[in-house]
Design a protein that fits this description.
The protein has 3 helices and no strands. By secondary structure, it is mostly helical. It has a domain of about 55 residues. The two termini are about 25 Å apart.
Length: about 110
Amino acid sequence: MIMLWECILKTSTATGAVWIFSLLLRRQSAALRHSLWMCGLAAFLLIPALLPLSQRTPAVHVPIIVDASAPPFPTAIPHPTLQPRIRANWNWNRILLTLWLAGSLVL
């Protein structure tokens, strides 16, 4: 299920970028904007096809050197008048799916 959301997010981002570029290039030729949209549509085929490669790529570990003589970060002391926030339990999968479907129906 996570891979599906990753595909939706990446293809939506690519489509949004193409849309912004097409707005910026609206005074250019229609052929250029058509080519831009064709590249955007090609992203819909390439992103899901290349997504398994990103799953197999090992994580890169970067060593972080910390100076031992540096003072530690001060600990945060909560203010006595502030009440802890109550977090609402949102079903983000359902909300995102509903928004995506609504956007698809609009188009």
